[in-house]
Write a structure and sequence with these properties.
This protein is mainly beta and 126 residues long. It has one domain: Porin, CATH 2.40.160. The chain is built from no helices and 8 strands. Strands 1, 2, 3, 4, 5, 6, 7 and 8 form an 8-stranded antiparallel beta sheet that branches. A hairpin with a 2-residue loop joins strand 6 and strand 7. The radius of gyration is 19 Å and the shape is globular. The protein starts with a strand and ends with a strand.
Length: 126
């Protein structure tokens, strides 16, 4: 599986704190999956997991993206897919990413062990 997210936040005038720089977060993860499926011809549910790598970078809005080292990441979750009618399926998936800590070096900061969660909703057409 592959996941890419990149939200950002800028405080607006009138919010509790004074206006500051826009802070962006970028999270990417790639890993192979092992999936156990349960169901019939109208749909199925599944439990899955995998071990891969991820990168999480938090930075202020700037022209160049700082590079963060990758960390080993265990991901697990489950979901379901239902066939609403022939040629149309709806799906939902919840995935948890357990990210290993990254040690600090002389030139780069480290990051602690952390957990991220992704909730996905989708449709498939045939």
């Amino acid at each position: 599986s592959a996941l890419f997210t990149a939200p950002s936040k800028t405080l607006e005038n009138g919010e509790q704190y004074s206006r500051g720089p826009t802070v962006k977060t970028r999270f990417t993860a790639v890993s192979p999956q092992l999936s156990f499926n349960f169901g019939d011809g109208d749909g199925w549910s599944y439990l899955s997991g995998g071990l891969g790598t991820s990168r999480m970078t938090v930075y202020k809005d700037q022209p160049t993206l700082p590079e963060q080292r990758s960390a080993g990441t265990l991901n697990y979750g489950g979901g379901a897919r239902w066939f609403v009618r022939p040629g149309l399926a709806l799906s939902l998936d919840i995935r948890i990413f357990a990210i290993s800590p990254v040690e600090a070096t002389d030139t780069e900061p480290g990051s602690p062990r952390m957990t991220r969660m992704a909730f996905n909703i989708g449709a498939s057409f045939n």
